[in-house]
Specification:
It is an enzyme of class 3 (hydrolase). The chain folds into 3 domains: 21-329, TIM Barrel (Alpha-Beta Barrel); 368-453, no CATH class; 454-481. The chain is of the alpha/beta class and 481 residues long. It has 13 helices and 15 strands.
């Protein structure tokens, strides 16, 4: 009897502690894969589970990635890249095929918990010059129709993650918000469609970019500490730009006649390198404020209550375009190899602890490619550095970044090493006209990490594939005997 009671107590305690991890736990993350050496999907899924992350958003529907989420119960938003919008807008048959191959295949008992299909990614960004204006809405309608027809419509909703630049407020007061004038009619049709299909409005909000794009932006207004003058709007007080931006959308929806449309924040986060305001200290400050806010379920002045949010992002991505800025490759809460950068408490309790890093990561050997110190005449070095950086990632050398204070030798060595690691430590990639040399002593300097690359997912795959072929050959060999 006493044992049974104890057992019950133990079970409840366990359930209770599980709730602490998952309770406030509607934290989602974006899992982007624009990396030269992506981590194997099963390792990334392990990280999500270890850190109590219950939702994930991906940018395509890569079958290997999506399959790795089977049986986890993690809610998944799969994506359709912008370059597929035209085909899907033009052909309902292709949409049916897309749903069959990328959704239906994963829906079975113990399969993948797909909740949303993201049709395009920020397709109405002004920098796209209207390229996707004609195709996004037809593709959205086709995909939802195909989901409905396949019997998934009640569980899985099609939506379009949009940048916050689809709405604006000329005065910066949320109450003056409305959809951007050049796309207003289109936006009105789309939000009506979301409403009719019970799909959410997915919006990406970046306080970091408010600060980056405007030197006069009040610094503390980008964070959640309340350390700047509040903005007053029709009796409501705003002490951070996230709330003000979110409520600008709420006002735009009100004016569109759909005041209660569900909103999901598809991306929000802070980069850790590549800019004077992109560093781990400010990222930690931002996430600490954001996660505490989310755990409080306070919502925004106009929309009190629980917010649904996907953080951007899980991992650094060294192949992202740096057109928007050098910080683009440093949005990861974790580094390229899945190791944590700074303390973060996903439950919003504000505990200063490191999150749990990726387990079972395989690294290449501990060797670095650096400038050969015996080289006296360095006049030929700069073109080699340009070459190395054009084919790898030297964004950490930029102004305000972690490697910005290196001396000349450090700069050159950093560039040589990044190229060498990018090329999977191929010895031919550590030559540079005889000016480079391999060393086994850690070349990192202070805060500047000279990384060692990992054995990437794709190489593991080709290794496994080669092994399978080898096994196959062996089997045929024995069969011949
Ligand atoms: C399924 O998704 C993958 C990855 O995004 C894509 O390459 C493929 O074309 C899609 N399948 C179909 C039938 O459209
Ligand atoms: C948009 O137009 C600008 C200026 O004409 C051009 O530089 C840019 O490449 C265009 N972008 C796209 C995605 O077409
Ligand atoms: C979209 O359609 C309009 C009107 O039919 C046309 O003028 C425009 O060129 C189209 N845009 C693109 C990117 O195809
Ligand atoms: C360094 O090398 C360059 C090109 O190889 C040559 O033109 C230059 O004269 C050399 N400088 C010295 C000081 O030797
Ligand atoms: C090192 O490189 C950075 C970025 O390219 C540059 O700003 C800096 O002046 C360089 N330092 C030296 C000593 O060459
Ligand atoms: C090299 O040193 C840096 C900084 O001390 C450290 O973070 C990194 O883990 C080291 N790398 C290896 C492969 O030991």
């Amino acid at each position: 009897m006493a044992r049974a009671v104890y057992l019950l107590w133990a079970i409840f305690t366990l359930l209770g502690s599980a709730n602490i991890v998952h309770g406030s736990g509607s934290i989602g993350v974006n899992w982007g894969t624009l990396a030269s050496h992506p981590l194997p999907p099963n390792i990334v899924v392990g990280m999500l589970k270890d850190n109590g992350i219950t939702k994930v958003k991906i940018f395509d529907a890569d079958s290997w990635t999506v399959s790795a989420l089977a049986g986890t119960n993690i809610e998944v938003m799969v994506g359709i890249p912008n370059d597929q919008l035209k085909t899907l807008a033009d052909s309902y048959g292709d949409c049916k095929d897309w749903v069959k191959e990328n959704v239906t295949k994963h829906i079975y008992n113990g399969g993948v918990n797909i909740k949303y299909v993201a049709v395009g990614n920020e397709p109405f960004l002004t920098s796209y010059n209207g390229s996707y204006l004609n195709t996004t809405f037809p593709a959205l309608k086709n995909i939802q129709k195909a989901l409905n027809e396949a019997g998934h419509g009640d569980q899985i909703k099609a939506t379009v993650p949009l940048n916050a630049d689809v709405y604006e407020s000329s005065t910066n007061q949320p109450s003056d918000g409305d959809f951007r004038s050049d796309i207003k009619d289109l936006m009105l049709q789309i939000v009506r469609f979301f409403h009719d299909n019970d799909a959410p409005f997915v919006v990406n909000i970046y306080p970091f970019l408010s600060l980056y794009e405007n030197d006069d932006f009040p610094f503390e207004f980008a964070f959640f500490g309340g350390g700047s003058n509040p903005l007053n709007d029709k009796g409501l007080q705003y002490n951070n730009v996230f709330d003000a931006n979110y409520d600008t959308l709420v006002w735009s929806l009100k004016k569109a006649g759909i005041p209660n449309l569900k909103i999901v924040v598809g991306e929000v986060g802070w980069p850790t390198d590549g800019n004077k305001n992109g560093n781990v200290k400010l990222a930690q400050k931002f996430y600490d404020g954001l996660l505490k806010k989310l755990a409080s379920n306070k919502g925004t002045p106009l929309r009190p209550g629980k917010l649904e949010v996907y953080l951007f992002g899980l991992l650094d991505e060294d192949l992202k375009s740096i057109a928007p800025g050098f910080f683009e490759r440093h949005w990861g809460i974790f580094r390229y190899d899945g190791q944590p950068k700074f303390p973060i408490d996903f439950t919003g309790q504000g505990q200063e602890k490191m999150p749990i890093g990726a387990k079972g990561v395989q690294y290449l050997p501990s060797q670095w490619c650096v400038l050969n110190k015996a080289i006296r005449n360095t006049s030929e070095v700069p073109p080699q550095v340009d070459y190395a950086c054009s084919l790898s990632d030297c964004t950490s050398l930029s102004y305000g970044s972690t490697c910005n204070n290196l001396d000349f030798v450090g700069n050159v060595s950093y560039a040589f090493n990044m190229y060498f690691q990018m090329q999977d430590q191929d010895v031919r990639a550590c030559d540079f006209g005889g000016m480079a040399q391999l060393v086994s002593q850690n070349a990192s300097k202070g805060t500047c990490l000279f990384p060692i690359q990992i054995v990437s997912a794709s190489e593991r795959l080709s290794f496994a594939y080669t092994a399978t072929i080898a096994a196959g050959i062996l089997v045929s060999f024995f069969m011949l005997m």
